[in-house]
């Protein structure tokens, strides 16, 4: 689908989102900046065949309905996905076929694993996972030799068909066996992160959020900004969301409650759906005028504000705290200004860690503004 703007330019769409949102089809036009894409942090999706790797990618980054993934064919080649929605969310996802050994001499394993930031190994919790654990051990031990900085994430997937007790027991069993295998391989100091996931609820989005956050060098700065913002605004919890994928790239230091996260995700869906229907522009459903307020029957308020074209701040607070909306809005403007400055630091220092002194000045500046 495409339409012409007033100046005659054409805009392409993928599903219900403009192509500019960064979630285009796999057969994209040749990109002259391919070398730039290759230099971005890379996330590898690995696991046995039919473990659910492609379904995860389709649901999170293509907004495919979970039921539609039942008809996906097995992946027979490496599928590369470029995600470049904002200055913070920039990475590649490589979906690797489960039946191939990428440490074989026929593949350039140095290229595949050398520039990788995180490796997600997907295990089907509803299947016998003995073979999956054997491949996990082989993959982790060999990939770690190639790239010692690689972060290993294990998705214990398809847990929607298991009882709560069975989920816990399965996670404990896989955790124990995986670390026993690593100890046998002399890798007892290697760290694995485990997540219970399903494409039929928000667990897969939360797990991917945790993985992506590890690839964002500015994460401590973002968390500090959020902590200062909520403490000076009477807010209980705040998430900084990437709008399209519903991945949260940062949150404050308080524990994440799964129910609160699900409410925030649902709010983003509501805002985008309503904007698509009643918005003033066809090519942009989320802009600098976007905001929403949802009042729950238990006295809780959900408050959404646009930060950038692809980022939104979603806050959870009590109704009596929202009586000071003017203060909250002022603090939000200070927060957004600080985020934009962090963007500029990122752009000036592509590929390197942000200057800690500048980051501290941003945080202190927001605190001074919020308290004045």
Can you walk me through this structure?
- This protein is α/β, with parallel strands linked by helices and 372 residues long.
- It has 2 domains: 11-25 and 39-213, Rossmann fold, CATH 3.40.50; 219-371, Beta-Lactamase.
- Helix content is 39%, strand content 22%.
- It is built from 10 helices and 14 strands.
- A hairpin with a 2-residue loop joins strand 2 and strand 3 (17-18).
- The model is unreliable at 1-35 and 352-356 (pLDDT under 50).
Query: Helical residue percent?
Result: 25-40%
Level-2 CATH architecture of the largest domain: 3-Layer(aba) Sandwich
Number of strands: 14
In what range is the share of β-strand residues? 15-25%
Number of domains: 2
Shape: globular
* Uncertain parts: 1-35, 352-356
CATH superfamily of the largest domain: P-loop containing nucleotide triphosphate hydrolases
CATH topology descriptor of the largest domain? Rossmann fold
Class inferred from helices and paired strands: alpha/beta
